Each structure stands twice: as C-alpha cells, then as structure tokens.
Amino acid sequence: MAENPTTALTAHWRLPPFFTLQPVATTRVEQLALWRTLIVDFCREQRLASLPLDAASGPPFANTAISRALDAAGRRAVADALIAAGEAQWVAGAAGERLLVWWRPLAHWADELSRHLRSAGGSVFTMAELKSTDADSPVRGCELYGLGADLVRAAVAELERTGRAATFGSKPSVAGGDDDEVGVKLL
C-alpha cells in the first residue's frame, strides 16, 4: 500500500508523537478522538469493513516515512475508543484481533442488504450466497458487495434482531465457525 493511500491520513498521522499514547488524560482523549476519525475515514475511503489490529506495518497504524507505528497497547486503546463510541465492534471469534468499523451505521448495512435482496426478487438465501463475490452473487450491485463475510454476518444478525429476517439450519457451534449452510429468510 502506498505511504499516503488516502486523504483520511491527516496531518497528525505525519507527526511522530501521534504514534505514542499521550500520558496526560485530556491530551489522550483528544488523541484517541483523532485516531477514531482517522480510522473511520480511512476504512470508508479504502472500502474496508474490517480492520486487523495487528496491521502495524502500514497505514493506518504505521507510517514508514517517519519510522513510526502505534504499538499494540495503542492499537487496543484506539479499538476500545472506537467501540465505546459505537463506531466499531469486535469481529465474532476474533476479539482483540479484528474490528468491524462502522463507516456507515450497522442499520444502514442491514437496510441496504434487505432492500437490495427484495428488489432482486428473492427472499430465501444461504449465507454462502450472501457472502459470495461471484458474478452471480445475489448481493452483486449492493453497496456491501465485496466488503467481506464479517459485514454480511453482522447485517444479517441486525436484520434478525430487528425482526426482518430469520436464520435457520445448522448454525456454527463456535463464533466465527463455518456458517455457509445457514439459511436466511427475509420477513
């Protein structure tokens, strides 16, 4: 990835102190707010739905041009700030490793998925179909197409939580397990 792949990487990202958690509480609060904005904007511009926290070798958590990277404790503090602000959640089965970053609210993704599938004339799908990036995928042309299985799972869970979908079939026994055979019915 290029050193400045996006306009989301602000002027702060080019300053070495930005990559060190600040010890003064009020300064740290402001620093984490800047990181939150940077992460959400970066993910939006790069069309990333999930972000690994171990990605310290390049943007957004590292800037090789100034030889700086946010350490593991700093990345965890940024993750905690994003989650506390409702801008992210841990990926099921990957807590501490990967975040779903809400550059659009989860309700938007659920609405988009439901609207797209209804306009395509379908009402029953498998998770494998919904996660597929094949040319004949039922989500092709939908805004969340190609954004990853984690986002599709979250959108389906939101539809189910709000009573707009039901899942059926054999659900994985472990979070993050294979759910390809799980059926999804739009209600």
UniProtKB/TrEMBL annotation:
It holds the Pfam family ESCRT-II. Keywords: Protein transport, Transport. GO terms for cellular component: ESCRT II complex. InterPro entries: ESCRT-II_cplx_Vps25-sub, ESCRT-II_cplx_Vps25-sub_N, WH-like_DNA-bd_sf, WH_DNA-bd_sf. GO terms for molecular function: protein homodimerization activity; structural molecule activity. One of its GO terms (biological process) is protein transport to vacuole involved in ubiquitin-dependent protein catabolic process via the multivesicular body sorting pathway. It comes from the Eukaryota. Belongs to the VPS25 family. PANTHER family: VACUOLAR PROTEIN SORTING-ASSOCIATED PROTEIN VPS25, VACUOLAR PROTEIN-SORTING-ASSOCIATED PROTEIN 25. This is Vacuolar protein-sorting-associated protein 25.
